[in-house]
Amino acid sequence: MRIHFKTSYENDIRLFPDWWSFLVYAVLVAGAVILPWLLDDFFLGEVTNVLIWAIAGLGLMLLTGQTGQASLGHAAFLAIGCYSCIILMENGLPFLLAFPLAGVITGVFGTLFAIPAVRLHGIYLAIATIALSVLADDIIVLLEPWTDGVSGKFAPMITIFGLEIERWTTPDRFYWLVLAVTILCTLAYRNLLRAPLGRAFAAVRDSEVSATAMGVHIAFTKAAAFGLSCAITGLAGALMGFYAGAFNNETFSIVISISLLMMIVIGGLGSIHGAFFGAIVIAFLPQALSMATDTIGGMIGGGNVAIPGLETGVFGAILILFILFEPMGIYGRWLKIRTWFELFPFARKDMFKRQKSYLKTERLR
Amino acid sequence: MDVLQLLVSGLANGCVYGLIALGFVLIYKATEAVNFAQGDLMMLGAFVTLGLTNAEYMDLPFWIAAPLAIGLMALIGYLLDLVILRHLFGQSQTAVVILTIAMGFVLRFVAGAIWGHEPQTLQSPLSQGDFQVAGVVLGMADLAVIVVTVLLTIFLYQFFQRTKLGLAMQAASQNQMAAYYMGIPVKRVQGLIWGLSGAVAAVAGILFASKGAIDPNAGLLGIKAFAAAVIGGFGSLPGALAGGLIVGVIEPFASRYLAAGYSQVAPYALLLFVLVFRPHGLFSQVRTKKV
Amino acid sequence: MSLLEINNATLKFGGVVAVNDLSFSVEEGEVYAIVGPNGAGKSTVFNLISRFYEPFSGQIAFDGQNLLDRRADAVADLGIARTFQNIELFDHATVLQNLLVGRHRHRRTNMIEEMLFTPRVRREEHKHREAVERVIDFLDLQPYRNKMIAGLPYGVRKVVELGRALSSDPRLLLLDEPASGLSVEETQDMRWWIDDIRKQMGITVLMVEHDMGLVSGVSDRVLALADGAKLAEGAPAEVQSDPAVIAAYLGTGAV
């Protein structure tokens, strides 16, 4: 077990608690950078997909895990990010300008949505965001002059300083681009958590009354969380557009919204790791399932069988199992296993036992 | 007359939304949780009835199949609580929301695996014949929906206001620990309410399937019913029905008088509008917390 | 001029009068206690000062500034910090993070700077942490520094809440039943802390408390409330021997 002797305030502030964890993350990032030389194009594409989902997950995690505002409508913000980035590029803006601007635009939309939404709690917020997600689909169709409605749009080629980046022809460059965005978003997220605003988010999540008494402006803090969350989600949306190549009003459906929320719950609410773990599950589940059905189909001689609804059904079942047996998600399980090894042989079985809790009405706020 | 016809068909649709919304409100009143799988329970209820009564399946007479299906769905509701939801006892609303969404996914998959993904119609005596009153055509199914919904709402309302069990259910939702101390078996009460809402879902499913075809994705109707429950304000049974009727009536009028594309938007736009001005619904019960 | 002045404050919930034409003032540097039977409106007075409730009529001023002009979250900016009767901590955060939220009124950096974690943010963080570590030392919270609130015993939570209020460097500290639920030893500690808060830190304390031992031990003046109105005010011994106060506590007819 590693013991941290704290000798200065920096010990609590810096990104990595000790040299060991710095080393671990350095190796991880180095491994991620050289990945295109290790994997073939198909798997590199899959890893790219994981990273894009992880960025979207980070966005939602900031809102749901950190600030306690569950959103079932984040696909709408993915769509805003995607459409605004590509429409800006079609109007002649270079990617390096259009991409961050897409994040800003989505953030502004998120803040605008938050202005009425910050008054909503729990289920009411969930419902308002569901409505937003359903509306997004129809609104994209209604805005056909800009969005080309049901026929959809194609993502243009990305050019950065003359370097051409495209999902199919240069998957390695596209991967590095996504990796860079992922690292930047993760760093910004981490920085927020060790600064006053990040703590204000947690304060709003856990007790609005005492946050107010400590001088935290609840509405402003929630709106900031919405804005930031949507900005990050918008970036992920733009990348999703480039990854898919073509998209229309049905690409960012309510199922995507729901999957995104389920993903961060499976990964572990309230942790950066959770967004990544969840993204791995959501991106590789379809592959794993199709491999499984192929194998079973091969064994019983039925060939390749497609079972509609299988993915969401299995995903739902996994989620139910997690909520029942590991509410802290994959990250929570990982922490337990790590602690068990660190304390070996002193870990006790009831160390992580949940306290019995009783629910009081939430009709009183 | 045209307006009247729109109004009547809107009311009948609204009653189906209202019935699903009743299921939401039941569970919300008693457990303070929101069952996002209510629409899928309704879908399952319809398919169970269809499986019992349709000629290509078990071919039971409708009037035997329907009560049987309602009983089965009550059992399924109770079991869902016993096996899954009870483990979440005392956890936050958001956890239950996510859990029930996942349950909906699983139910949809199960129904698709058993009954296939093609739309099917329920062979029900309710789907035959229609009345003509003063130039307005009223289907048998529409009439049945309206009558059953009104009766069920009155029955459930009385149940919560008058009976000891109903009051115990409300008490259990307000403060679980205090309810325990007063001798209310909170967990069993929670199981009963899930059974009850399973039965209500079955009724809604039977009536919905009598009005038209049903497929595993019919549960997505729950989202609209959800809008209805919110507009009415969670926690109020008559409110749920009122919300259902509002949504049901808006739809046909919107598709008649608004440009194409805007009509689907109408119920959700109304929902957002209500939430902006009455964040807890039209018949809100939320007060400020005491510190 | 007094530090806190409440003039003719009245608050009604529906038909119930929770605070009835109440006036009192707290001088800079004193410990002022409010006592009274349950439902006398003691916590309501705190919630009026915190701006959680809007008074029906009357004025509340802090250091000459009208508190009623301010939003609830702007009260802390003036240097008013408080604790709650039924502890309201941030359960899923560590003790250190809870105390750091107490520093929120001293936040000088904006969202963009914090996302980039500029040198200025770092310098500010150092200041916040220095202030918080002083509070941790003062209240002996070192063993719990990095523990989650959710796993802490009641007595410790009570102290953490006091610490969170102190971290904001307040001028006026509102303590809502600081000793309720504490053991005899813990109450003794609380008494010493309140003494030190006043004497060493020079913070004015306004507290609601049932434990008369603690009240008479630390407070300079006591206000007795019943049914939202003033029964008696004065030195602890005077108030305790006031016939009206004894009647309110024991019921009329006794004495």
Automatic annotation (TrEMBL), chain A:
The keyword Transferase does not apply. It holds the Pfam family BPD_transp_2. Signal peptide: none annotated. The keyword Cytoplasm does not apply. It comes from the Bacteria. GO terms for molecular function: branched-chain amino acid transmembrane transporter activity. The chain crosses the membrane at residues 20-38, 44-63, 70-89, 95-115, 122-143, 174-192, 223-246, 252-285, 305-325. One of its GO terms (cellular component) is plasma membrane. This is Branched-chain amino acid ABC transporter permease.
TrEMBL record, chain B:
It is found in: Cell membrane. It comes from the Bacteria. Pfam families: BPD_transp_2. The keyword Transmembrane applies. Keywords: Amino-acid transport, Cell membrane, Membrane, Transmembrane, Transmembrane helix, Transport. InterPro entries: ABC_transp_permease (IPR001851), BCAA_transport_permease (IPR052157). This is Branched-chain amino acid ABC transporter permease. It comes from Antarcticimicrobium luteum.
TrEMBL record, chain C:
It comes from Antarcticimicrobium luteum. Signal peptide: none annotated. Gene3D superfamilies: P-loop containing nucleotide triphosphate hydrolases. It comes from the Bacteria. The keyword Lipid metabolism does not apply. Keywords: ATP-binding, Nucleotide-binding, Transport. This is ABC transporter ATP-binding protein. The lineage of its organism: Bacteria, Pseudomonadati, Pseudomonadota, Alphaproteobacteria, Rhodobacterales. GO terms for molecular function: ATP binding; ATP hydrolysis activity. GO terms for cellular component: plasma membrane. Transmembrane segments: none annotated.
